Structures are given as C-alpha cells and as structure tokens.
Write the structure tokens for this entry.
Amino acid sequence: MERLERFRTLVKELKAYQYVMNVIGWDSETEAPRGAFGPRAEVMGIIGGEIFKRSTSQEYQDVVNGLYRDIASLDADTAKEIRRAKKALDKIVTIPEADFVGYQRLLTLAQPAWEDAKAKNDWAGFKPFLADIIEMNKKFVGYYGLPGEPYDILLDEFEEGMSMKAYDKFFNALKKDLVPFVKKILAVKNDRRDPFAEAKFPIDNQQIFSNYLLTVMKFDRSRGLLKKSVHPFTWNTSPADVRLTTRYSPDALFGSVFSTIHELGHATYEQQIDPIFDATLLSSGTTMGIHESQSRMYENMFGRSRPFWQKHLSELKRLFPTQLKGATVDDVVFAANKVEASYIRTEADELTYPLHIMLRYDIERMLFSGKLTVDELPAKWNELMKSYLGIVPPTDSEGVLQDVHWSSGLIGYFPTYALGTAYAAQIYHAMQKELDIDKLLRAGDMGPINAWLKDKIHRFGGSKSPEQIMLDVTGEPFDPHYYIDYLKKKYTALYLS
Amino acid sequence: MERLERFRTLVKELKAYQYVMNVIGWDSETEAPRGAFGPRAEVMGIIGGEIFKRSTSQEYQDVVNGLYRDIASLDADTAKEIRRAKKALDKIVTIPEADFVGYQRLLTLAQPAWEDAKAKNDWAGFKPFLADIIEMNKKFVGYYGLPGEPYDILLDEFEEGMSMKAYDKFFNALKKDLVPFVKKILAVKNDRRDPFAEAKFPIDNQQIFSNYLLTVMKFDRSRGLLKKSVHPFTWNTSPADVRLTTRYSPDALFGSVFSTIHELGHATYEQQIDPIFDATLLSSGTTMGIHESQSRMYENMFGRSRPFWQKHLSELKRLFPTQLKGATVDDVVFAANKVEASYIRTEADELTYPLHIMLRYDIERMLFSGKLTVDELPAKWNELMKSYLGIVPPTDSEGVLQDVHWSSGLIGYFPTYALGTAYAAQIYHAMQKELDIDKLLRAGDMGPINAWLKDKIHRFGGSKSPEQIMLDVTGEPFDPHYYIDYLKKKYTALYLS
C-alpha cells in the first residue's frame, strides 16, 4: 500500500520535529540558563508552527482520511494507529491557525506568571491567565463540534474512554468508603518518632542512593539516565532513550527516594515497550492513567512496602549512619506511610492523596459546567479542603496556586492520577496470583516483576486501550473496589491493629 | 527594503533549525545515553535535510543574489552579512543533494569508527573512512569551481583570507626561530618537584575550583553554565546562552584547571558579543583563529602566569591542603609551564604546541597536493614527530589517530590553533600598552581586561575580518614575531636564567 508508506514517511518527519522539541524541553527543565529562554521561545514558535503546518497539511489529511476509509483492510495495530491519527486530525483541523498559535503564546506567558504568582501568593496575578486558558479550552472544544459535554472531551484526551459519568462512579465509590475511613485514621494519635524527617541528609549521598535504586530496580543505563530538576518527571523519545529526574533537599530524604522510585515506574514502562512501535504513533505508553498505575505501583506498592525495606534499609543506613542510627524496618515503613491531612498534593500520603484529586475534579467539572467562575475558585478550593480533609490552606500558594497543570493547559488531567492508582491496585492483585511479590522484593529481585509487567502491559506501548489492558491483565473490567480494599487493608494494619 | 525583510525571515528560520541541531549536539556530547544515538541519527538526517533544502531553496537564492547585486546600498554590517551568505550559498548550491547527504552519513559513520580505531590502535580500521573524507572534500572543492589550490579553499573556510602562502610565511618564521629554541629548552635538565602531577585530586573539589574560576573570571552564569564532557568545548546559540565544558581526572588537576580557563576564553568572547547581531549571520565570533586567540590568551597568558597564581593559589590549596602542602607560586608557575617533548597535542605545553600544529599542516598540505597518500600517512607522521620533537609515538593511537578533527571532516582547521596563539601574543602586546595586566591579575580584577577585549574584539561578533581586527586592535597587520618573542622571553626566563 503506497498510501501507508507515505503515511509512515509523514509520521517519521512529524516525529522528528516533536523529537527536537522534546530535547529542547529536556534542556529547559534540567539545565538551561535563564538567558536561554528568550531566544528559545522564538525557536519553539518556528518549530511549533512547522509541526502545526505538517499536522494539518492537505497531504497528511488526504493520507489519514484515505487510510481511515479502508481501515478494515489494515492489521489491528495499524488500524488502532490510524484511528488515533484520525481522532487527533479531526480535532486539530478545526482550530484556526491564529487560535492555535495564540494559545501556545498564552501558555508560554502563563507559565512564568503562575511561577511568580505562586512565589508571591498572588492569586490575582495568575487569575486572568487561568481564565483565558479555560476560555480557550472551551473554544477549542466548541470548534471540534463533537457530541457530549465539553469537560468529557477533555477527560477523554488524557484517558481514552473516560467521561464524567465513569469518573463520578469511581469517585462516588471513593467518597462513600474512603472519606469516613480517612477521618478514622486521621483521628488516631500518632507520635511515633520519625528519624527520616528529623535529620539533615547530605545531597551527595542521596544521589548515591537514588542511583542505587536505579541499579536494584534494573533500570538500563545504556538506554537512559537520572538527573535532577525542580519537578521530577520522566522523559522519553524511544525505549532507547528514557530519562528520569528527581529532586534533592537535605531536609527531605524521602522526597528524593520516592520521587526516584515513582519515576522509575514510568521509566521502566517506557524502556520495556516493544521497539516495533518506534516509528508509529503507538510508540509511548497507552494513557496517563495506565502510566500512573505503573509509577504508583512502583512508588507505593513496592517502594513503601516492608519487604522492600527489609532488603534496602541497610544500604540507606550505610549512607547515613549517624542520621539513621538505630532505625528499624518498622520505622521506615511507618514513616513512609504516615497519614496526615496536608495542603500539598505532591507531598500527600497514599491514603489522603485521592481526596486531593477529587477536589480538583470537582472544581474542573464545575468550571466547565458553568457552576463555578474563576473568581470563585479560591473560596471553593478552601471549602472543599475543609470538607475532604478538615483543613484550610493558610495561603493560595498552598491552595489553588500549588499545581503546575492548569498553567500548562492541562485540564482534565488530574483525575488520571487517582484512576491510575486504582488501576495499580487491581493490577497488583492480579500479579499476586502469579508471583510471590513480597518474596521477590525481600530478595531484591525485580527481574520477574519487571518481566511480568512487560509481558502484560509495557510491551504493547500505545496499541491497547486502558479498558483492554485492564481486561487482559486482570480478567475483568476496571473495578475501584480493589483500590479501596487495598487502602483499607494496608492502613488498618498500620494504624488500627 | 522588502527583500531584506524576507532575508531576515529566512535566516531566522534557518537559524531555528541550526539551533535545534545545536541543542541535540550539546545533549549528545554531554549526557545522552548510548541508546539515544540510533534514533537520533534518523532525526538529524531529517532536520539536516531540511537545512540543506532551505539553504539552497530558490527563494533563498533569489533573495541573497538580489541583495548581493545591490550590495552598495547596504550598511556595512549588512553588506558583510550578505557577502558571507553569498559565499556560502555559491558553494553549497554546487553540491548535489546526494553527495551532501552521503557526506553527512559518512561523517556519522566515521566518528565511531575513529573512536574504535583509536581505542584499539587500529589504523587500518579508520583508514578507509579518512580516505573517503579526503576524497569527498576534494570533490566538493572541485564542485565549487573556485580559483586556487584545493587546500587553500579549505583553509579559507576556517580562517577567512588565509592561504598556504600566508601560512607558509607564518610557519617558516616559526621553524626558523622556534625549532632550534625548543631543542635548546628541551636539553635543559629539569628535575624540579611537581606537586601538581604527583598527588590524587578528588574530582568534587576540582569541580569546586572550576566553578571558582568561572566566578573570578566574571563569567555570567545567568547566561551560561559549566558541565563536564570527554572533550572540553564551548557551545553557544546566542550571547544569552553560552556553555562550556571541562574534563576531570583525579590524576590531572591541571587538566581541568586549564581546560576550564581555555574554554572561558571562548565563552567570554561569545557572551560579550553585541546582541544586535543575534538574528544575523554575524552572531558568533569572527573566525576560528580569532576565537582561539581569546581562549589561548585566557589559558596561557592569564592562567599560566605568575600574577594569576599569586591571587588564586590560596584557593587551590584550601581545596587540596594535603596534596599541595608547601606548594609555592613558583612551583605552580613552573609546573604549569613545564616543557616536554610529548606525543599528544592537547596535552602539549605552550612552547612545543605549535610544532604539533606544523606537523598537521605539513601533512594536510601534502595530502591535498598529492605528495602524500593516506597509506603513507602514519610513517610520515612519525617521521615529522622525529624531526620536530625528536620522539616517535609508540602507537598510532598516540600518533596519527589521536585527534578527532579529521573524522569530523575538519580539514584545514588545525593551523588556526597556532595562528590564534600568535594573534593572542600580538593582541596581548597591544593590551599591555593600555592596561597593567599583571597588576589586574594579581588583584583578581578581570573586569577591565574583559571590558578591553569586549570593546576591541568581542562586541563586533562576526562583523569584522581577522585582518581588520588585528589592524584595529594592534595598529598593524598580523606579525608572527610577537609570538616568537613572547615564547622566547617567557621560556628564557623560566629555563635559561
């Protein structure tokens, strides 16, 4: 098929442009000096414009539409790819170039505006940008002309197939079971000593431990690396080049440890994708939710578990002998799973974390249905914090201004964090039937665990939907009760027995 | 002028593509994991192809040729820019796309082939690549159809206006005066203790000292950074983003110290260019030779001088108190200026360095005139080493295979290293008439020195020819006797008095 070959070439070129944007992004996030950003914005405008032009060119439209008409004749993976290309194409061609470019410029300005506002606790300084970003997103959804509610369209962009109806079902289950349980746990008096929060931990040795984690989790350094950045993230251009970052502070040993393990979950996923997808649009992980299931499984289910620390505490104590003198496995397990009502999502414990997400979901939902204005946002934020966690942030910086997402145009993204964790619980349950996970962690043997995840999830890249993955891996559709049961069992054992 | 505006837009776009190639190059040199290089080669092929297409497009040709016809109506800087654009255009349009792409591919393959050959002392493994690279360069020069000898065309590419005739005059002056002087110095018995070569110097503190050097040399960190790489280099995309690298080995303290100072010379040049040239083809330093004059002045004339160490030895001793116990300023000045007949150019002292360059110039000259074949190259290398330095490298890895340049297609580049150092001596001589350099160095006050260099050289970016710079700065044309006098005076004082 000549048309398919032409599609391959166009995709390869388009991906080359995205590749260079990714490399520039990596540089921006991890080391570029302040001065770089002015000239760089100009370059990104030019290359970004070229990407828009190529993504909407008549030839690309003809090729994708032509292949879509004959989709029945394609193999399953290619059909999935064409469906994905067609879905993206049908959206982007509805956007006038001026709006597309204007939105990119808005995001470029919104990012530093948010940083400033957060630093100065200046909600008013960020509000107009957020209002514009929400307006533009509504406008784009209007252009698409797709059936359904606007917020549903955004939810589907980050987690294919998800909608308010599906999320409501999920979050209502959490609300019913989890909110009272969290209150019960928060009421338990906890004055256990926490040696991991008290001392100062020199960054050099934290770096050594993070690198130790890469080794023991079997990260392939010939196809990736670890670096530091302000906000930890995973970056990839192919399974052959997968990079993760972590952050270091002398006051927060667990900050680097669990950021590194979390990102290792994402990074292992990307490294284990079958390279046959390299040149296709299916070359990365399926969805945000499935991706987060891997990072949260690594972080919470492996990294915060007793068997994990039975193996690895000795190395941590070797690096911090005075700070951790006398610390036991029990100490680390309790400290790593300490439950607290807190303001900041990224620092929240595993149990209160989904409540932070529910709050954001409620707010985005209301913003898009017209039930909440941007003006009313900070008050609503505080009201919901009070209702879910019983606390009110003293400043907007610790409240409505805390997250980077909205200033980057990521609306509809937050719910995937909670969903991913819930996926993780169900996948972990299935894995337990086939592997003695505790025993493997206690032995420091990640090989069989990574191999299982590769075989069941990772290798497929973006070729399966999340529904299909959950069904294939666990034998049943997604069911939030695995998540609720997991949390209740874990925290009952830690706090109520 | 509408045509000039169109030229500006085309140049801005072309520069955006070069910018992304530069960022990828920086990543490749400083951190990309091994796995990255496969996928990356494909991307660079696509973006490189786009650069070729845009550099040779009919529109670009029309615009440049149109402006060139009306060059008399342009201001001096724009005229210089158009002349430069026209010169490059007239060359590149003569190259068939297949040859251009084929040569890029050849270089991509030659690079790892050279690395392997050097590691394994396997001249035969690199020879066919070098033969092809030389053939392709001859072919390209043939396409250009310019008057003069092929090697002259290459020399001019790296140092505008230079030719074999001019270099012969320069090198013959060196041969006549310097070769016998070097023999005299090498005959002096030198058994002075060298504390800087004997001990082990932990890399962490070497990094601290290199960063200290950035601070005291007044490098602006908001517009640049220091990193490490296998081969030190300076990288820049604009005065707002100038980066340098150095290398660290526990056995070679001076390796990091003088690499850092050398690159600081290049980097300071780039940071001090007037931003009015940003969007033009005159946005970087004039030529390789003038650039090298700045790096070698920083390294040799400032960094290896007595006043410099009168100021900075205490900081070095603070970082390495046991290793440098009792070391004096005399010790560091002698150690930093120790003369030895050695095999490796990049590790050669200031006095024997130009002999390494003369050897390479002789060889390139003979290869292009047909007086030497690639087969005969290693024997000729060793013969010339014997003649200039009295030693013969025990392996090709320490001889003909040592440099990266030929495998990167850089032929005609080496002579600019010696020329730059000679420029430096003449510029330094002029600077001395206006500034008390020793006093400023002794006070650690680089401000007036950097300001002088900015005013006389740096700010002009690529808008002046090297001849013009030498004339404007020193009041006379380039004259190699300043260099010879400088070396004789310096080494007579150190070795013969």
User: Anything to note?
Assistant: The longest strand of chain A covers residues 241-246. The CA atoms of residues 451 and 481 of chain A lie 26 Å apart.
